[in-house]
Amino acid sequence: MAGVAFAGVVAGHSLAYFAALPGGAQRDTYLAQTGHSYWHSALVVALLLEVLGLAVVAVRGFRAGLRGTLPIRFSARQLATRLALIQVGAFTALEAGERLVSGAGVSGMFAHHLFVLGVAIQLLVAVAGALLLRWLARAAGAFGSALRGRRAPRAGGGCNVPDGLAVPALRFLCDASRGRAPPVPAGS
């Protein structure tokens, strides 16, 4: 959830500035004056954390499907609330910190209705992030559940993966390879 929240803060932050200051030159000047020189790096980090966060959710959902458990334990409302709290808090701290570091004055974050617009966008991004997390976890869980239903019995042939080994892809490959081997002789 942290990676998705961070990416949501960065995405919402960018959207707020694009909406509040539609002119490219005016926006670039304002961003330079308010301590946003690091912003391109923040976008790259946010993208990487988003991908990592979604991958973790997909793997956990897949494993839950293999075990036959729920892929995600929070409702969409609970996830959206948690993401909204994290994102609005981080957006507020980020805006205040940028202005303190640049010497632009914290009161400037209320210019152009930027702060109110930013909070509203953070709330929308948090809801979208929660829905994405729920959908991804459920889809990966359904995929894992479908693979669980197709598993062949473990008797004879193939490779044996210890039960404690948490590598579903390896287990799936081993189980899938059983049909390609010669039949196990009777009495073995």
Overview of the molecule:
The protein is mostly helical and 188 residues long. The chain folds into two domains: 149 residues, no CATH class; 30 residues, no CATH class. The chain is 70% helix and 0% strand. The chain is built from six helices and no strands. Helix 3 runs parallel beside helix 5. The chain is elongated.
Secondary structure layout:
Elements: H1 2-20, H2 24-33, H3 39-67, H4 76-102, H5 114-150, H6 168-177
Helix pairs in contact: 1-3, 1-4, 1-5, 3-5, 4-5
Integer tally of domains: 2
Quantity of strands, as a count: 0
| Strand coverage percent | under 5%
Poorly predicted regions are 152-158
- The chain-level mean pLDDT equals 78
Question: What gross morphology would you assign?
Answer: elongated
Oligomer: single chain
Work out the helicity level: over 70%
Radius of gyration: 24 Å
Distance between the termini: 49 Å
Q: What's the main sheet like?
A: none
Figure out the total of helices: 6
Give the H and E element order.
HHHHHH
How does the helix and strand content classify structurally? mainly alpha
Tags for this model:
single chain, 188 residues, mainly alpha, 2 domains, 6 helices
Short summary of the structure?
70% of the residues lie in helices and 0% in strands. It is an all-alpha fold and 188 residues long. Helix 1 packs across helix 4.
